[in-house]
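Two proteins follow. First one:
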Amino acid sequence: MDQASPFVSTPRRDIQAGLRDIAPVAVAALPIGLLFGAIAAAKGMSPLEVTLMSALVFAGGAQFAAIETWISPAPILTLAFATLLINARHVLMGASLTPKVRMSRVQTVLAYFFLTDEAWALSERRALERPVTGAYWFAMAVVLWANWTLSSTIGAILGSFLGDPERIGADFAFTALFIGLVAGFGKSRVTLVTVAVSAGVAALVHYFIGAPWHVASGALAGIAAAYLAAPEEARS
């Protein structure tokens, strides 16, 4: 009998919800994956190498940063340090999500391999109403992983035939989508202050210092702002 409240969680419902929520993200990711593949191919990477990088690294921002500085021989220490700074935000996102997921420790560790900004934002939004189950997470995250891997591979194969996505604003698609997801979290004073401070500091650091320092700076500023803006009893 499936006459229960729509808020009752079942694996089938959670899978359907995950697929529904990730669909617009997957569409927005297509031009970004194609762009990455084309740039990587132009730097001398083969389609197979692009496929393996996207499948095993699965970190769009870090992959773009690596490709931007890609030379032969590759500056391994520089790439590793830039990737560490860019992906440091995943520690904060994981700490935020862990109390809200309904998964075993092993499932959670495996799930966080697929952690992205968009998966985090969608899960946080869902957690406002119910816990995030493994069925929801993996339906959502695995689709985005497969979409990113496939689109970047196609981009590497097609290469220069794609043209420049910046001409039509496709390079901003993921950023616009993420802003929309964050805007749906609510309009509390703490949320507004945290987002405003984090975005402002990240923008200033990016302008005056450059990438990838703006990522860590924005994250730390957001944490400090959230702590200071929270009610005093919530800090104790």
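Second one, unrelated to the first:
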Amino acid sequence: MVATVDHLIEHVRPYLDRDHEARIAYIRAPRWIGHHVAQDSHRRLAELLDRPPSLRTQGLMLVGPYANGKTMIAERFAVEHLRTSPKQRVWIAQTREGAGLGHFYASILQALRAPGGDMWNLGRKAEQLDHLLFSLKPRVLIFDEFHNALRGRARDVEAVFAFLRRIGRQYDISPVLIGEVSVCDFINSTSEMASRFDLVAVPRWQYDENYLMLLDSLEAALPLAKVSDLSNEPLARQIFSLSEGLIGEIVTIVTKAAVAAIMSTSERITKAGIDELHHVPVSQRRSRAFRESLL
């Protein structure tokens, strides 16, 4: 393939010489986007790892809407930590849906790869968890989709909060809570909990220079032979409107459009090509009109 490659990052350019299947597989592969919020989040997480021992550890909240990259930020940080540290000190627990300490303990036990994570005896779960935390000595424990733990009765939520306070005092662990805005509301409902957690907001993107730079970086990472000019109007506006400012949706739209550009041999993303995706914004997927269109 003969193509101009100046619009592509250097390590992406050789992919233009590969077949369609290889290029599409590369485009669809998960990719890290080091935007300013992600970089700030990693800095704040690194500070939790490097802090001195404390009996009252400080935690962190990563809060924002669904499909906006919060989980990827945490997973990327955990992976980078594993690559550079001789001992794992960062663990990620997928918080289960369900009220009470039983479900919450089971989430952590599963993350620590412990057998018996589904046992019903709460006392045995607590004993097993204490043993693992003492043995593994994690420094940062990340709870993804923490809002799942906040859907029970007030006493259940307070029991979870008491656990978060205890692991700081007893095991020198900094908890990191990832979730929707409700996480921030619950933590800030009492001064005691609010004083223990700093906030890193992961909001929707605005139509500004940072967003346009994001589009430029995405285009440079996709092995298409022709320039798409994603950051120019009206293409940038079209992507922003369909994505509603959610980075997960932005990446999905651009990825699908890039794959379609290869399949059609047009080798560039166009407004017409994005129209042909028939992408439905997140806010419209529960609307009556959308539902009726499926019948």
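SUMMARY FIELD: DSSP finds 13 helices and five strands in the chain. Residues 64 and 203 are 5 Å apart (CA to CA).
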